[in-house]
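Run log, item B.
One chain of 262 residues. Sequence copied directly from the ordering sheet:
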Amino acid sequence: MRGTLVTFHAHPDDEAIATGGVMARASAAGHRVVLVLGTDGELGEVAPGVLGEGEALASRRAEEVARAAEILGVSRVAFLGYGDSGMAGEPTNTAPNAFAAAPVDQAAERLVAILQEEEAEVLTVYDENGGYGHPDHIQVHRVGIRAAALARTPRVYESTLNRDHVLELMRNRAAEMGEIPDAPDPDDFTMGSPASAITTTVDVGDFVGQKRAAMQAHASQIPEDSFFLQLPPDAFREAFGYEWFIRRGERPRTHETWLFDR
């Protein structure tokens, strides 16, 4: 068995969007892939009629992430056991079991146990803004960085979005993509990081089919009429065929194209 990849995410469905391609590629290359989730995503938005009578969203999302994990070749899915904190500014941010309110060292110890048990070679977290400022995503960054230090995980990568790449697609290739419902406004787009901050670009073009199928598995959060799934195949490949990271520690001398030593 080659080195183990642990990807740490805030809620079910985050893994498919942010690192689904890397997970599928690592699994295909013979690496053990482990997905760790800070919360069960119980406060996610869901369209009316999606849940059955009396069905809890947390239960549905657990089923969805299990299906997505199977699609991506994940060997283990683990939850840290915290509650979803909700969007920034909501009263739920400080609820007793909210992930965002958890002491960093306490939450980190839960992740350390997994990193040590799995003898993780690579851990992915989020960038310092959590991609777009969600409290649980920012907490993934804080907790993951602390846990990696305690567990002495050799390689830590911050999953991010190449803002310049996305803006180029939205501004210069909009005609090819067609009219997409709920598409982001490029003038207000602040997610991710500038290209100059990114150390690692992974081509996951051969795995976009699995990535899209994993997104579809999260039907309570990513319906078929969502922006993600309305992209034409070529546009989906351009938007999701690469995954970007910032390597922690000393900046690599050359731009990396993979998370493991070759």
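Observations after the first pass:
- The chain has a mean pLDDT of 92.
- Residues 135-151 form the longest helix (17 residues).
Flagged for discussion on Thursday.
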